[in-house]
Specification:
The complex is a heterodimer of chains A (298) and B (340).
Chain A: H1 5-20, E1 42-45, H2 57-63, E2 67-70, E3 78-83, H3 99-117, E4 120-126, E5 131-137, H4 140-153, H5 163-173, E6 179-185, H6 194-203, E7 205-211, E8 226-228, H7 237-241, H8 243-266, E9 270-274, H9 280-297
Parallel strand pairs in A: 3-4, 3-6, 6-7, 7-9
Antiparallel strand pairs in A: 1-2, 4-5
Helix pairs in contact in A: 1-3, 3-4, 3-9, 5-6
Chain B: E1 2-3, H1 6-25, H2 27-30, E2 35-37, H3 47-78, E3 81-87, E4 94-101, H4 107-120, E5 128-134, E6 138-145, H5 148-162, H6 166-171, H7 178-187, H8 201-209, E7 220-226, H9 239-248, E8 251-257, H10 265-277, E9 281-284, H11 291-305, E10 311-316, H12 319-339
Parallel strand pairs in B: 4-5, 4-7, 7-8, 8-9
Antiparallel strand pairs in B: 1-3, 3-10, 5-6
Keywords (chain B): Membrane, Transmembrane, Transmembrane helix
Protein name (chain B): VWA domain-containing protein
Transmembrane segments (chain B): 6-25, 58-77, 319-337
């Protein structure tokens, strides 16, 4: 891969926000994460090796000793990404792109915002048989590693989706309160994950990014077969062509989406359903803005 | 019924299998790059989808079945199913008298001869057949006739009736139903006109020679005589005389000798010399199952004698495989159209 994932996401976010959401991420953590970033913990004596730009000149003048502002690491906001890296995420998204790319981009947007405000991002992903976890770090290399980990985990050979395990795992391994972004697809979290999610919201500020699945009938593209990534069953052309099947399938999917949306609304979890990689940057930023407004009102 | 070009059939079948095998091994590669989707479990809860899938599956199975039928039918068709018949044009002017010794020692052979002839009758066109049986006296079961229904019926009945082990029955080693006994008794009725005598072969043969009519017409005449030549009484003719009288009437003599029963080699020798002195042919076999092939040989030698070159006539029977192939083709096209 030529360009790093972070670079590409940064370019896309900046392209999007330059025109539509500039206000959202101006300033170090000003808008997205209130009270973090700019706050310094303490002043301490300058030690060789400290950054000269961190010297608090006024305090130095007052005390006569070179003092530097110390931004307490503990004070920095912790973000965490809970990525559903099951086989389902290797499938096609509603807009025809890969759900995996959309997931990496969504995670990239969060990482970008964290990078802008110097926040730390951790990762919870994988499956019960092969859990993946990255600690909270802020470095560029770490963010790149995080995105790459997600990208490499979500392959068709991965185990099937298990949102209950993932949410449980996220709750157990994330000790401190974080701004948690769950990235999954339209079928998750399931209604039966309600209790797990609620427990997660007691400790964390949870957001859910859901990536819509491609229509399993794909009626306008009969030249390609449609195969479910988790169960190799062929969907016959007869079924794909039928208007009646299309109608019933659409109704089923709508009902499923609405059910999940209702559950998330009931938990006051900010969530967004995005069509895929083409829309995910704008959708995630829109979600963050909506969350901001809600916070502003609150 | 046989296949003229059976190897073409074989070739086509092998080719069909090869195509299937190649398609089977490469079935992954033949998938048009599939689109991966996820979370389709809910489809099983969509009734119309389940119905469509089931219908598609039935159609697919039907398609495969029809295709297989089509390939089979096409292979059969290209194999040229044909029936072969040995046609001998001048054979029609034959008169054949079956002259059977129905003494107890002959019962298995007589049955075979009658059955074989009953099976041959349907291929006859113009030949006439008569059946005469003798023991101490002769009885004509039916005279020379070309009423093939009658011939077939009589021969079949005769074969069944004469399938009777008289010695075994008398000794009590074989048991038959009363109807069977009555049937046998009725069939051999009139062949025991002389008391204490049996198997008067020369007289029986001479009587068979009397059965030929139309002496003035140019017909081929033959007697198929089945006997073990164990004379048990006082014949009027000697075997030589009987054979001569037959030969004088320009009758070909074919003798079937099943092997000695009670008599020594002198019986065979007598039969052989008498037969050969009048230019007849003698066949020997102690196996009743050899009778059909012997009768075939008689047919052939007779045909050769008459100068009739037996020609093999093949008749193609393409109708059934053709219709099947056609229907299968139509079915595949229709179903394929539907699947598009």
């Amino acid at each position: 891969m030529a360009a790093s994932l972070m670079t590409r996401v940064t370019a896309r976010v900046e392209l999007t926000t330059s025109s539509r959401a500039r206000g959202l991420i101006q300033g170090r953590g000003k808008s997205l994460f209130k009270g973090s970033g700019e706050d310094f913990d303490d002043l301490k004596y300058y030690q060789p090796g400290d950054r000269v730009s961190d010297i608090d000149w006024k305090a130095t003048a007052r005390s006569g000793e070179p003092l530097i502002r110390q931004f307490n690491e503990e004070r920095a906001r912790h973000l965490s990404i809970v990525a559903d890296t099951s086989s389902a995420m290797a499938a096609r998204a509603e807009d025809g792109t890969s759900k995996r790319d959309a997931m990496v981009t969504a995670a990239g947007v969060i990482c970008y915002l964290a990078q802008q405000s110097g926040d730390m991002v951790g990762l919870v992903a994988g499956s019960a048989s092969r859990p993946l976890q990255l600690p909270s770090r802020a470095s560029d290399g770490h963010l790149e590693l995080l995105l790459r980990t997600i990208q490499q985990a979500a392959v068709p050979q991965a185990p099937a989706a298990d949102s209950a395990w993932l949410l449980e795992r996220a709750f157990r391994v994330t000790a401190r309160p974080t701004l948690m972004t769950v990235i999954t697809d339209e079928a998750h979290p399931r209604p039966e994950d309600f209790a797990l999610l609620r427990r997660l919201t007691t400790r964390h500020d949870v957001m859910v990014v859901r990536i819509a699945d491609a229509d399993p009938l794909l009626a306008d593209d009969l030249d390609h077969e449609v195969v479910d990534v988790a169960r190799p069953r062929e969907i016959s052309e007869l079924a794909r062509e039928s208007r009646r099947v299309a109608r019933e399938v659409a109704a089923h999917r709508r009902a499923r989406r609405e059910e999940t949306a209702r559950m998330l609304d009931a938990l006051h979890v900010t969530h967004v359903l995005t069509a895929g990689d083409s829309a995910v940057v704008a959708d995630v930023i829109a979600m963050l803005r909506a969350k901001e407004h809600r916070h502003a009102r609150a | 019924m046989g296949m003229t070009l059976w190897w073409v059939t074989l070739l086509l079948l092998v080719a069909g299998l090869a195509v299937w095998a190649i398609a089977f091994w490469n079935r992954r590669a033949m998938h048009r790059d599939p689109v991966l989707v996820a979370n389709t479990e809910f489809l099983d809860a969509v009734p119309s989808f389940v119905r469509s899938q089931r219908l598609a599956r039935v159609l697919r199975i039907a398609q495969v079945a029809i295709a297989v039928c089509g390939v089979l039918a096409a292979s059969l068709l290209s194999g040229r199913i044909a029936s072969e018949r040995i046609q001998t044009p001048d054979f029609a002017s034959r008169d054949i008298v079956l002259c059977l010794d129905v003494s107890g020692s002959m019962y298995e052979y007589d049955t075979e001869i009658l059955q074989t002839f009953a099976g041959m009758v349907k291929d006859f066109h113009g030949e006439r057949v008569a059946l005469s049986i003798f023991n101490s006296t002769s009885r004509t079961v039916f005279p020379l006739t070309n009423d093939y229904d009658l011939i077939e019926r009589e021969l079949a009945e005769g074969a069944e009736s004469i399938d009777f082990d008289e010695f075994g029955y008398r000794l009590g080693t074989r048991d038959y139903t009363p109807q069977k006994v009555a049937q046998y008794a009725e069939f051999v009725e009139g062949t025991r006109g002389l008391d204490d005598q049996a198997s008067i072969i020369p007289d029986g043969l001479a009587a068979c020679g009397q059965l030929f009519d139309q002496a003035e017409t140019d017909r081929s005449r033959s007697i198929i005589l089945a006997t073990d030549n164990e004379v048990n009484g006082e014949p009027i003719y000697t075997l030589e005389q009987a054979a001569d009288s037959v030969a004088q009437r320009d009758i070909d003599l074919y003798v079937f000798y099943p092997g000695a029963y009670d008599c020594g080699p002198e019986c065979v020798a007598e039969l052989q010399s008498a037969t050969q002195s009048v230019g007849g042919t003698i066949y020997q076999s102690s196996d009743p199952d050899a009778v059909p092939s012997i009768i075939q040989q008689i047919q052939k030698s007779q045909a050769a004698k008459m100068g009739a070159n037996p020609a093999v006539v093949r008749t193609d029977h393409p109708l059934v495989p053709f219709v099947l192939t056609f229907l299968a083709l139509v079915g595949v096209v229709l179903l394929g159209w539907r699947g598009r």
